[in-house]
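User: Show me an example of a complex going from sequences to structure tokens.

Assistant: Sure. Here are the input components:
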Amino acid sequence: MNFFRDTGHLFRFAGLFVIAFLVFWAIRGYVVPPTFGRYGHYRAAAINEIAARPLHYAGHAACESCHSDVLDMKKAGKHAGVNCEACHGPLAQHAADPLNVTPVKLDTATLCVRCHSASAARPKTFPQVNIEEHANGVTCETCHQPHSPAIENSASSAGGAK
Amino acid sequence: MNLSRRHILVLLPAAAVAWKSVLAGTPEDSPNYSMSDHWWGMLIDIPKCIGCGNCVRACQQENDVPDGYFRTWVERYHVTDTNMTNPEVISPDGGKEGFPAAKEDAGKYFFVPKLCNHCADSPCTQVCPVGATFVSPDGVVLVDQKYCLGCAYCVQACPYGCRYIHPQKEVADKCTLCYHRITKGLTTACVENCPTGARQLVDLKNPADPIHAFLKTHSVQVLKPQMATGAKVYYNDLDGSVH
């Protein structure tokens, strides 16, 4: 047994290494989140957490199921490309519970002006008016039906669909 | 069991790999959404933007962005014909309540909506010391707010100024490209609320997406291409004075 003579200190040292490795492994397993590194140097579970955040805007498709009458009018008019919530605001709660959550009444004096007040900065082809000269204190919806704003449509749209 | 030294050497790494997959758990079920099928970006059509600020308001409401902070904002450029390199840029409250009326003069005006460019080689994710921000497998730059320390390295690293430290949470915050919406088949809040279609969500991995035809037929740029960030927010008809 010449080979194992005077080697006790080496085995103790090796044992120390093994214990240190096991301690490191245990701490690492405890500290590093389980999904860390699945896709890269980050916690993969964060992706699902971010995807689970709550909605505020229901999206245009949600309106279609109940409000198809207004949508048909809108599709025929100049505001066809404007989604409902662009003016009506975030209504995911209304879409989820239409009876108990009702949208607030809108103020055309602020809404229309946001897009249609005259400014040299806006694209020249975009319809815009000098509010004071154009309306002279009269509210927008007196003449324009917001869902189909062109004047020639307003007479027929007042009676329902265009 | 009689294991030779050769067997143990082979089995130990195999056991380590198996143990790692046990720790990682099984991936969550997302039946309708597969990350590997998408590569998200955005198209911004400058000539269509009217500076109404709908996108800024929608973003703040959808994502509970605190007042005075912006995940997206709109800048108005005023370039006089003799001063291309030094345009006048304004963005009052991020353009949230629109812009003051401009008067016709020798210069030209246009609006530039800005947001996170969701860079494929993003500088912000590379500097994070803890792995709290990353490019997701579907190409969206996200922040893991449970992991973020709030050191703000990424805020400094973003060449586009798209990040901020959330004043209450004290962690980095930024545009998620409405990740909670696009994974459910909806579009982003800013695109949903853009009245003129100046913003379009694009999926570069979807061969049917109209972006592919658009990129071929239009003069499209990204911001700061010299930074080689792999930005995926494409601007149509972007003026050379935009910085």
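The lines above are the inputs; the final block is the predicted structure for all two components together. Chain B touches chain A through 60 residues (CB under 8 Å).
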